[in-house]
Structure formats: C-alpha cells, structure tokens
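Lab notebook, bench 4. The sequencing result for the construct came back, and we need a structural model before the next group meeting so we can plan mutations. Quick request posted to the team channel:

Model the 3D structure of this chain.
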Amino acid sequence: MSIARILGVAVVAVAGVAAAMADGPRSIAIGGATFAGQVDAAGLVVTSLRSGGAAQGAGLRVGDVVDEVDGVAHPGVARLAAAAHGTHAVVLHVRPRGDVQARTLLLHGGGGGA
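Done. Here's the predicted structure in token form:
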C-alpha cells in the first residue's frame, strides 16, 4: 500500500480487501482501516485503523464517516467493496469527527483482485 498527497488530495492505493460477512457485509477493511455501516451514520464509519497504514497516512481517524462514494450519498459496505475491487480511482468524501473540515480522498482499486 502506498500514499501520496497531490494538491491536498490523498491518494490511497489498495492492495487487498477483506469483508466481514454475517447476513451480508457489515464491515470492510481497506488500506489499514475498517469501515462499518451504522444506522445512525450517513455513510460508513471508520471503526479502527492500523498504525502506519495507508488510511492513517491519508489522515483518516476513528469516527470519521465516508458519506459519499463517487458522488453517491449514504454508501453501504457493498458499494465501497465494489469500488475497492474496481480498476479506476473512486472519489470518497469524508466527513471527519470533530471540527475538522471535510475532505476528499481518491481510492485506487485493486483491479479485481483481493
């Protein structure tokens, strides 16, 4: 996994994707972060981060919410998983916890391989 900052936009390269399954996907791990769908959130909540992972390097923090994936609001785990397996970059809009300004990240898919 790698991270690069270009004009204030973080680019996250995803080497693999793992999804937790129980009656359908409820969480997904990408770039060292776990994202979970929660009823009270308008998207996917970052529930954990691996120290030194690409997601942490991109500035994600536990409690941040990915509230758009490629312009589609209220994304679910399935949408993020499809984006991570895709072959093109996907725009993620992140609403951070606290008073930090929202930001945009580019998720580079794994090209179909996990």
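The longest strand covers residues 89-95.
Will bring this to the meeting.
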